[in-house]
Amino acid sequence: MSDITKEQFQQKIENCYTDYYNQWMQLSATELIQKAEEIAAVQLMANELPQQISDEQAEYLLQFKNPLEVVSDGWLSENGSDVSVIDEALDHVLWRLIDTGDAEEMYEMETPESDGLHMS
Fold this sequence. Notes:
Layout: H1 3-25, H2 29-34, H3 36-52, H4 55-61, H5 67-79, H6 86-100, H7 102-106
Helix pairs in contact: 1-3, 3-5, 5-6
């Protein structure tokens, strides 16, 4: 992955994770428990995605306002909270997202005037 693309992608994932974290901190203990599977998936994808993603996959995901949400939702729909074989499973989730194009209809895309990066 080119250094610029990798840096942009990693920064965007970090920003998305920070947004999730701030939302979670506003929830009650009961709400957090109810969201445990989602939280685990988001944390797993935030940690694994930047190391495992190809240039093509990163460029595709950078089109979305929240690529972390796109991949975490894909991971949950295919794997639930099972994380025993992450390499192959994550690759399959990314392939399916790009191949079907479903995410483009379901998730908010970046606008041309926005680069998706907001500095914290």
